[in-house]
Amino acid sequence: MILLFLGSPGVGKGTYAQVLTEVLEIPHISTGDLLREEAKRDTPLGREINEIMMKGELVPDHVMLKLIEERITHDDCKNGFILDGFPRNLVQANHLQNLVDITHVLNFKADDEVIIQRLSGRITCKKCNMIYNKVGKKPEIEGVCDKCGGELFQREDDKPESVKKRLDVYREKTQPLIDHYTNKGLLVEVVINKHIIEIKERLISQIKAYLEGKINKIEEIK
User: Fold this and answer.
1) Domain harbouring 192, CATH code
2) Dist. CA 158–CA 36, nearest whole Å
3) What is the total count of domains within the chain?
4) How far is residue 104 from each of residues 2, 56, 179, 187, measured CA to CA in Å?
5) pTM of the model as a whole
6) In a domain, 117, yes or no
7) Quick check: is 221 in a domain?
8) 88 is catalytic
9) Annotated catalytic, 202?
């Protein structure tokens, strides 16, 4: 079973992936994590990635594909995996198609106002990048990271005006992918406007039923 997770910034697909990876017993492969891990290594590829990220530029397709190709050869991927954050465009999707057969594409969605509220409440540690939320996962001491004691701050791109722009850019860039996987009959929408704590068991039940072919769509859990 090879799953691809799509979803806008702040929709929570990484959280859902972490929950489902335990239930399905397949690894969650986050391209963001792969890039950060490789950037820490003193290798030609790691130095290239670090230089690109320091400039704030997008990592080119050939680098992303190289990372994915290497990661899916690991033993823990023998029974499948969840891809989160890849592919980001049709070029990457077509290359991925030559590597593996995607079985399902889950497109996680939430109302814009829900996402804006979530992201505009996010605060990040300056030292270790741990993420908290003013209305959800609060630190024990205001303004201080529980993990490393670093100072917490709000990123510019998590402010409401920036979030709206990020959502517009995401939709513009991702629509071709949504159309691509819809036309292949692989995509299903997962609409979630509630916190996962409130709906975790029902969400898992619905997604499992869909993956097992017992239902042909996933209803919004209200």
Assistant:
1) 3.40.50.300
2) 20
3) 1
4) 7, 31, 14, 6
5) 0.81
6) no
7) no
8) yes
9) no
